[in-house]
Amino acid sequence: MQIISPKTDFCAKELFAHETIRKYFISDVTGIRLEDIRSVRLSNPYLWKRYRKQKQGILDVLIELNDEAKVNIELQVKFYSYWDRRNLFYLAKMYTEDLRVGENYAKLKKSITISLLDFDLTEDPLYHSVYYLRDENGRQFTDLFEIHIIELRKTVSGRDSLDDWIRFFNAQSEEDLDMIQTKNAGINMAIGEVKKMSMSERMRARYEAHMKEVRDRNAREHYVKEVGRKEGKTEGKAEGRVEGRAIDR
Q: CA dist 49 to 13, 82, 133, 141, 198, Å?
């Protein structure tokens, strides 16, 4: 049976609304022990969007971890030009946005970004990359910045929980979900939620309406690009004719 894809922002939004799923996912990605995670509170219960008219394929979930750190989970299905700069921009913004004028720098919290990318960012076969702020000899300057990049399209070879999370997000059918044999409570809960969503007529209707909106938006964007491309060619030809006449003279 075909399922509602966990990679869609529609499905991921529902999944990360569950505290258990958030807790296990963050633990498996960052390596923070479950027993050390006291809370994974959503900073915005509506899973805020950065833009009023957000483009398809961007989901941002801002989480406060143990009241000591902030974690931003991003699901990105389309390639962005200058994605690395964009990621750093929002990491810096997340780090500084809570500090008001005149307040002590001690209030600044560790900021972690977890980016699930449905495209290859690099040609390296490594599918989970972790970046810190270090000097040229590898000595850590601070642990306040931490970047995790997970490239979902790369081949998964391991059997740990993070590998199973990647298999989960790439699942396209109920059979794919059943092949993920794990004792991880967070993954099993996520699998159960996707199966329930896929069986619910109400949720499937909402999903189909969401996907129709996505397809319509993509069609409009494609049309605008095509019109712009054709107009650019027409203007280029007109300028060429004008320049040609000027040279003839």
A: 11, 20, 27, 32, 25
**Nearest-10 Cα torsion for 197, 202, 203, 204:** 90
Strand duo 58-65 + 69-76: pairing: antiparallel
- Find the angle CA(172)-CA(40)-CA(192) to the nearest 5 degrees: 30
Token duo for residue 182:
């794990």
β-sheet bridge partners, residue 41: 64
CA–CA separation, 65 and 42 (whole Å): 9
- CA proximity to 204, closest of 3, 46, 1: 3
Q: 47-73 pLDDT, tens per residue?
A: 444 444 444 344 578 899 998 999 999
SS3 state at 25: helix
Q: What angle do CA 54, 56, 60 make, to 5 degrees?
A: 60
Helices (H) and strands (E) in the chain, counts: 7, 6
Gap between the Cα atoms of 66 and 27, Å rounded: 12
Per-residue buried b or exposed e for 184-216, using 16+ beta carbons within 10 Å of the residue's own CB: bebbbebbebbbebbeeeebeeebeebeeebee
What tens digit of pLDDT does each residue of 116-154 get? 999 999 899 999 999 999 999 999 999 999 999 999 999
What global pTM score does this model have? 0.76
Name residue 60's amino acid. Answer: D
SS3 call for 113: strand
